[in-house]
Amino acid sequence: MSTENPVLKVDSLVVETDSKDPKQILKGISFEIQPGETLCLVGESGSGKSVSSLTTMGLLPQGALRAAGGRILLDGEDLLQASPKRISELRGSRMAMIFQEPMTALNPVLTVGRQLDEVLACHTSEPANKRRERVLDALEQVHLPDIERMYDSYPHQLSGGQRQRIMIAMALLLKPKLLIADEPTTALDVTTQHQILKLIRELQEKHGTAVLFITHDMGVVADIAHRVCVMHFGVIVEQGEVKQILSNPQKQYTRDLLSAVPSLTPREARALRGPRLVLDVAELVKEYAPPRSLLSWFKKPKAGTKAVNNISFKLYEGRTLGIVGESGSGKSTLARCVMRLIDPTDGVIRVDGQQISGLTAVGLKPHRHRIQMIFQDPYRSLNPRRTVGDSLIEGPMNYGAQREAALGRAAELLQLVGLPADAIDRFPHQFSGGQRQRIAIARALAMEPDVIVADEAVSALDVSVQAQVLALLDDIQERLGIAVLFITHDLRVAAQICDDVLVMQRGKVVEYGPASDVLGNPSAEYTRQLIEVAPGRSWDFANFSPAS
Amino acid sequence: MHAQTVSTEMPASRGIHKLMSKVFRVRPKTATIIAATILLLIVLMAIFAPMIATHDPVELSPANRLQGMSAEHLLGTDAYGRDLFSRVVYGAQVSLTVGLGVAFLCVLIGLPLGLLTGYFRTLDAILMRFMDGLMAIPGILAAIAIVSLTSANLWTLMVAIMVPEIPQIVRLVRSQVLATREEAFVEAAVLMGTPTRTILWRHLMPNTFAPLIVQCTYICAAAILTEATLSFLGVGLSSETPTWGNIMSEGRIYFQLNPSMILWAGLLLSLCILSVNLLGDAARDALDPKMKRREG
């Protein structure tokens, strides 16, 4: 294989911070990609995988990072020596990139067609009608419906998946030899992700494009890669054929990374801990009224949008109920209704027998502490200006605890979530994402709740950290008997932590039952589809073997 | 003399440099250092005016009216024979008092209003329309109207200048609150049963400080200018109290006889406003969250 001419050859590339005492971000990495091959750079955050792609495209942030050594050969031409003008010529024509966030990668004030046309206008001298033909052809190739209308659409009129298709069409317009895809499906739902991965693969086979695919998701790797480079702290730990890496990893880091990927096979439901029904939600509805204007006085009233439509479930002490769904399914709205952060339109919420729906802010206060929340983004859920200790004792002190006693309890809780006792005097920015999520858990526990609502609580974390936080939640639940309402889009996580699962689609319940039934033997078509498109379904990562 | 000023200024500016790198955590630009030095000198001049001034600034001396520069009267005398140099020195007191006073009063009133309108949507709908109304009136006209209706003392003057500036503060604080109240840590506080006043005080207010400081410097500069304008138009403080505005107003008829009549007051006013604005820019650069993120 290596006898062929590689499209991209990166040779002991060093990238460091552009400052007085430079810190190495990439410590001499080497890899190459053959025509028609997909190479996955996989690693956790901070491993340097994105920096590698940005260096190749000549897009390193000026004044912050610079390439300090090595070579990047695109078709034998060293990109690090090339002039900015030459790099700009090569971008688009010989190499192209698609980004993680399709919302921000397109200019919102220009039509999609204009933006695609611009690429051709910059790089070719074809007449306008010829260019239009080529753009329409490109839109056709990425399987967009109604391409004439798409041509004249603005980005906001398209869905996330459609936008990512446009980005791919744009990247492939000039038939580049190298396509760099930096987490192109991370912001998308699994169904859309599945389609986009299929599309990239199809176009690759058609045009023989080499793809450098950057991802943190081992499932995606298993689905799309030919070869894999595992990165860790700016070093390539291991590289090889995808089969070999997944089935017989040589390095401990790779083994740990693969073992941390949660399995899709649901765990055995635990025995019922007690008969106490701690959260009872019945026929909950949240309807958003349609926008009103003066004219609407004269028109027929429009129906509102039901973000949560008639949802009922029961949660017993010590159990975990997973609410699973794609974006827009209403799972977060449901959580916020249950927490009474927003007021439900209709329905009943009972926490440990006490009805909390319909209570006023004052009436609600004595019951607030029984149900607590862990948020998705650990960087935004702690006030950056307050010490960890202050954040932890805020709640208990609101309910009349003495400062000294509350601080003592906070120290215990920090120990419980696996943080050193001296963390109490430090500020959130001194902690990593995973540690902050532990602090957030400790903060929720400080209120001695009956129920914890975890809204995508591990989605922003790396898979190894994710595994640790999930284990911690499990352990705490075991010890304290707290019930958890776990909201996630990730079926793998749901399979590992939930006793029961409720699948939502467009505000409605699709399926509700024990996890082993819902995920192991789904009865609803939608659930089956969700499981089918989960990335890496065919591989059992923890056991380094194909899934049975 | 020239060499002397240079040699005395060097260590001072180095000291300021150090202090400012501590305060702002970034290396200040040269322009910032110069601005800070100028402003410091003007502040010192205002504080030590009784020692610096050579004469009583209000002492009339009709025999010595409209004299040119001399050793006795460094900048000459005005139409009533008052010493111009002393008047210019004392003028700094009024300008700085008005500038700082208005900025302080604006925050005192605007910050709570902004916090409340940002958090309570019903209040927001009512109060912000009132603020829109206030903003629709040209600031200087409103100030003239308020001063004309009352007697022109320092307090009414400050209130008159402050009123048109308040909506700016309210809008700024409100926008910060609107953005911050969506943050998860504020929702977490709600869930922990933290009372609303504590949420406002503890979680929302500190986040408004950085843009507030920047806005204050601009308001301070604008207030100094408005005060001078009002005095120049003759609706400010009575001409007995020396201000840079009324010095220029009285001097404008005679400035062909003696340019010092308006030159120095005007120059100091310009320098003062320029310095405050430059410091505001520096504060904005230093307090910008993006800069901070890059720092650490």
From TrEMBL, chain A:
Biological source species: Marinobacterium mangrovicola
Localization per Swiss-Prot or TrEMBL: Cell inner membrane
Membrane-topology annotation of the record: Peripheral membrane protein
Main location: membrane
Domain (ABC transporter): residue spans on this chain: 8-258, 279-531
Gene3D superfamilies: P-loop containing nucleotide triphosphate hydrolases
Record-level GO BP terms: peptide transport; transmembrane transport
Reactions performed catalytically: a dipeptide(out) + ATP + H2O = a dipeptide(in) + ADP + phosphate + H(+)
Lineage: Bacteria, Pseudomonadati, Pseudomonadota, Gammaproteobacteria, Oceanospirillales
Protein name, UniProt field: ABC-type dipeptide transporter
Family as reported in the entry's similarity comment: Belongs to the ABC transporter superfamily.
Top enzyme category: translocase
TrEMBL record, chain B:
Compartments where found: Cell membrane
GO cellular component terms attached to this protein's record: plasma membrane
SUPFAM superfamilies on file: MetI-like
GO BP annotations, alphabetical order: transmembrane transport
Gene3D superfamilies noted in UniProt: MetI-like
Organism annotation: Marinobacterium mangrovicola
Main location: membrane
Protein known as: Peptide/nickel transport system permease protein
Stretch forming the signal peptide: none
Key word Translocase present: no
Keywords annotated in UniProt: Cell membrane, Membrane, Transmembrane, Transmembrane helix, Transport
Transmembrane segments: 30-53, 94-120, 140-164, 261-283
Top-level taxon of the source organism: Bacteria
Protein family per UniProt: Belongs to the binding-protein-dependent transport system permease family.
Residues in ABC transmembrane type-1 domain copies: 92-280
InterPro entries, per database record: BP-dependent_transpt_permease, MetI-like, MetI-like_sf, OppC_N
Membrane topology: Multi-pass membrane protein
